[in-house]
């Protein structure tokens, strides 16, 4: 069993529904979703583009997947998560946009949100005591030979390369996209997600995801509302 602390909008949020339609799986129910019909894109091509992010579900990583430390239980983790969330303020992203991050596409904030970066930093530190040390095999999967000095330091200290100065909030939409296809994919994703990107997105909860066994799809275990919500129901994004 592995756990991860992510952000994802509530199950009924329009962005969640559109993202599940794109990825082909609903992380709340675990159900497969029929691939969308997109002009000039065959269903098989969409399935290939989404095979990697489909397993993880629609999310933004705050604390990357980890096994529980031997002396701690799921109940301990849930208690800490509820306490942390109830004493932490929600954060608003004014607008998300589709962007290429290296070889893949994701939804990212149009402009930096310092409060969001701080929230991610706080989650990494607060929940690191729950993380069992990475095995040699788990560390190798991060391809340490490709990492920068700071990313390698993060991997060894925090179990994940992309934290603190190396963190960038993103909600992954595709796996690797070949360079020759990137403009076509970018235009398609812009059009597909445009209807649900016009409003602010409130980071109003922390989501606990679980991977029941190695290689299994990640599913939402529970949502934990943050305190001091700043939006009041825009597009249903205020977490219940």
UniProtKB/TrEMBL annotation:
<protein>
    <submittedName>
        <fullName>DUF1045 domain-containing protein</fullName>
    </submittedName>
</protein>
<dbReference type="InterPro" id="IPR009389">
    <property type="entry name" value="DUF1045"/>
</dbReference>
<dbReference type="Pfam" id="PF06299">
    <property type="entry name" value="DUF1045"/>
</dbReference>
